[in-house]
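Figure 3 (text version): structure tokens given as input.
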């Protein structure tokens, strides 16, 4: 899956503690491959990943967040931004408002026409759907059935073979019958052809619709992008409807289409039922493309809570091998601020499920805090002076026992040793440093 690919991509970053030019370059290649696998057009994937790289360099990696997670966050932000940032609803104005539906045969136009009618009817609008696919008699019946199902009126003419006339008659009918929105369902072909293009271009030119929506099957991958471009070049549509996202489509088409035609995606269709219609939310689609689930909210939460200044300060101390019990305590407090630990752990991919039924003792921190707080100022700043006598006193003062104090001292010293080694290895002060 894409998720596991990204996971692999971020392996290079994990454990390194920082985002640097070198590990970003490796990761970015993997991210690009993953996006292409999710049906994102290669050129688009390249420009996306170039932006992501720029964005990633120079970001601080917070202590609570692995660089891999931070990368996921950056990728998510960038994808969301590229897909338009905010959701965009359909515009309804004019009397009546006219919505023209365009797209290839089988893309889901007629189904979407029914869904949109349903959607607008629920906003208390008086809707009429017009059947302008004159090539297949079954298409007219299909729309009639859907209209009936959602309780809106359908305008049909069985003997008329002129879609433009039918549409104009439907609009006249709407005006005479107090209909406020007319949705014009049109004919598509299996592939782009000139006759179809001429017909839809003429409908657009004459009807002057409030909105022209291009319907495209998300399962068709790269073809979806090419078709979108051809239609847009010819009819300059206002928005895109992405259908069949209930299948195993990975949604990459959304990103490519948006990037190639620079038109907002307005709706997504996720099934054959009339209710299976949603506005398009770029952040949700970015999440779908990434497939990283809750990592993003984990990173967000960590970023909100962790004080960047504090992270920088601690970072400096680690570099200089001066990490002490005051710093340790401050880190504990930061972690506690992040809220329910179990909640956080459950968001980590892979770990989340495994940990679901495991009880995490949130009181585990309490004795540690008590012990550190029973140390004198001097002891906290210079842990090396904490002798046996002092340990006895600290145990008594904190209501713990000598064993617990010794354990904490050992853990703390192991941690410092690790930091020291890390400093030696990297030669420039461990992985918690600022990138660049
Ligand atoms: P048109 O030729 O563009 O009018 O396409 P239709 O509306 O007739 O849809 C073609 C086929 O795709 C039909 O069998 C629909 O039921 C199906 N379909 C349309 N939208 C969706 C969707 O979002 N999900 C799924 N699974 N099927 C869809
Ligand atoms: Mg149809």
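Below: residues designed for each position.
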């Amino acid at each position: 899956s894409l998720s596991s690919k990204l996971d692999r991509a971020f392996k290079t970053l994990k454990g390194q503690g920082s985002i640097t030019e070198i590990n970003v370059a490796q990761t970015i290649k993997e991210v690009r491959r993953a996006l292409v696998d999710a049906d994102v057009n290669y050129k688009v994937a390249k420009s996306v990943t170039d932006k992501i790289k720029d964005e990633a360099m120079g970001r601080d990696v917070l202590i609570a967040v692995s660089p891999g997670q931070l990368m996921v966050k950056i990728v998510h932000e960038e994808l969301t931004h590229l897909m338009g940032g905010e959701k965009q609803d359909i515009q309804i104005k004019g009397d009546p408002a006219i919505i023209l539906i365009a797209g290839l045969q089988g893309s889901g136009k007629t189904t979407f026409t029914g869904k949109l009618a349903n959607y607008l009817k629920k906003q208390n609008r008086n809707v009429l759907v017009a059947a302008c696919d004159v090539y297949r008699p079954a298409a007219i019946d299909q729309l009639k059935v859907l209209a009936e199902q959602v309780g809106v009126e359908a305008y049909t003419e069985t003997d008329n073979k002129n879609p433009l006339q039918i549409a104009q008659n439907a609009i006249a009918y709407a005006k005479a019958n107090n209909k406020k929105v007319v949705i014009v369902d049109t004919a598509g072909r299996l592939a782009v052809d000139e006759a179809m293009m001429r017909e839809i271009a003429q409908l657009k030119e004459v009807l002057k619709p409030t909105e022209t929506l291009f319907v495209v099957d998300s399962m068709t991958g790269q073809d979806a992008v090419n078709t979108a471009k051809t239609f847009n070049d010819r009819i300059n549509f206002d928005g895109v409807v992405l259908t069949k996202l209930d299948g195993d489509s990975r949604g990459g088409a959304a990103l490519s289409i948006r990037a190639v035609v620079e038109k907002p995606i307005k709706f997504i269709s996720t099934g054959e039922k009339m209710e299976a219609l949603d506005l398009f939310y770029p952040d949700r689609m970015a999440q779908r493309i990434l497939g990283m689930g809750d990592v993003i909210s984990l990173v967000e939460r960590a970023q909100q809570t962790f004080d960047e200044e504090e992270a920088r300060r601690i970072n400096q101390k680690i570099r200089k091998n001066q990490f002490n019990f005051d710093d340790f305590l401050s880190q504990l407090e930061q972690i506690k601020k992040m809220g329910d630990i179990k909640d956080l752990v459950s968001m980590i991919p892979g770990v989340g499920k495994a940990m679901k039924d495991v009880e995490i003792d949130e009181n585990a921190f309490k004795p540690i805090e008590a012990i550190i707080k029973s140390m004198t100022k001097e002891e906290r700043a210079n842990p090396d002076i904490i002798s046996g006598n002092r340990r006895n006193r600290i145990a008594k003062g904190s209501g713990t026992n000598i064993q617990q104090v010794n354990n904490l001292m050992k853990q703390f010293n192991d941690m410092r040793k690790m930091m020291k080694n890390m400093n030696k290895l990297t030669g420039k002060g461990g992985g918690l440093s600022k990138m660049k």
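The chain has three domains: 1-82, 97-280, 307-339+368-436.
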